[in-house]
Amino acid sequence: MSAVADKRKVGRQSETRVVYRPRRLIWMAGSCAVVVIAVFSVVAVFLRESNTGVVFRTSDQVAMIVLGILIAAGIMLWATPRVVADADGVEVRNVLVKRYYAWSDVLAISFPDGASFARLELPYDEYYAMMAIQAVDREYAVQAVRALRKLHRAAHADK
């Protein structure tokens, strides 16, 4: 869950690779997924006991549990954001999309006031949000942005 920095030998140089994942979002998504599965399971168990005039069968109960699992899986998608950066560039995986940017394509790493996520500043006034680095993670987010800026500076110093 925390930043991972590993050193690998590449020729005669050592390369630093950092990986960041959101901390609080993982806990929140996991907790919500567990609650959803529990609620759907309880509803499934008590479906047969209701006096609504509708006949619920075992297949309906199983379907309710499966529906709860599917909804929980959808909630857990919010726990998948990740940022992996090294000397060459940065790979950003948000909920469903993964993109790679070479450091030469990135103008800056910013975290604007009031923003929920850090972002990569790109040419032509474009930016790409990094959902893995969130304001709610406070000091962890600050450390992540500093590490990414350090890699960005190092890549631009080599030119």
Keywords:
elongated, 159 residues, 3 helices, PH-domain like, single chain
Commentary on this structure:
This protein has 159 residues and is of the alpha+beta class. The protein folds into two domains: 96 residues, PH-domain like (Roll), CATH 2.30.29; 51 residues. Helices cover 38% and strands 30% of the residues. The strands form two sheets. A five-stranded antiparallel β-sheet has the order 1-2-3-4-5, with helices on one face. Strands 6-7-8 form a three-stranded antiparallel β-sheet, covered by helices on one side. The protein starts with a strand and ends with a helix. The N terminus is likely disordered.
Stretches where pLDDT is under 50 for at least 5 consecutive residues are 1-14
- What is the spatial order of strands in the main beta sheet? 1-2-3-4-5
| Terminal-residue CA separation | 33 Å
Structural class comes to alpha+beta
Short description:
It is built from three helices and eight strands.
Layout of SSEs?
Elements: E1 4-10, E2 13-20, H1 24-46, H2 58-76, E3 82-85, E4 89-93, E5 98-102, E6 108-110, E7 117-122, E8 126-134, H3 139-157
Antiparallel strand pairs: 1-2, 2-3, 3-4, 4-5, 6-7, 7-8
Helix pairs in contact: 1-2
